[in-house]
């Protein structure tokens, strides 16, 4: 049985293995294969050798990335996200854009990964209502408050990730107190 969950809230459903396998873009991690037996599922993705953007921004002892590399990562991840929103029909809303979900190939080209929270939305609806899921610090405030999911929610998360890429700072610093910002 494939993971293929249908919701009755607008035209929204979880992304299935088959949906992911049909999505091909230079800046998206490709699903190579899968196996499903009973309640166990195994996904096989292409190998992306240079770890995550989060690793390169925040890993101990990592060299600082130069600006051309940062620009390449920003543009590549934006192109992958734009493909999901504009060229997939129906469109796919990722719901978890963050530095840990941007993988880097051997040339530091960005590939959007981890479609575990992704939703498919009808091109006809302005939004879909769903349970709020994602990573704190990257969630769009209107989505967090209302549960109304749009592709703009991903764009907000991309903006947070872009700010992290440019500044080298996490969206939420657990070691910093509120008063340290004053």
From TrEMBL:
Residues 1-182 form the Protein kinase domain. It comes from the Eukaryota. GO terms for molecular function: ATP binding; protein serine/threonine kinase activity. InterPro entries: Kinase-like_dom_sf, PERK1-13-like, Prot_kinase_dom, Ser-Thr/Tyr_kinase_cat_dom, Ser/Thr_kinase_AS. It is a single-pass membrane protein. Its main location: membrane. GO terms for cellular component: plasma membrane. It catalyses: L-threonyl-[protein] + ATP = O-phospho-L-threonyl-[protein] + ADP + H(+); L-seryl-[protein] + ATP = O-phospho-L-seryl-[protein] + ADP + H(+). Keywords: ATP-binding, Cell membrane, Kinase, Membrane, Nucleotide-binding, Receptor, Serine/threonine-protein kinase, Signal, Transferase, Transmembrane, Transmembrane helix. Residues 1-17 form the signal peptide. Its EC number is 2.7.11.1. Gene3D superfamilies: Phosphorylase Kinase, domain 1, Transferase(Phosphotransferase) domain 1. It is found in: Cell membrane. This is non-specific serine/threonine protein kinase.
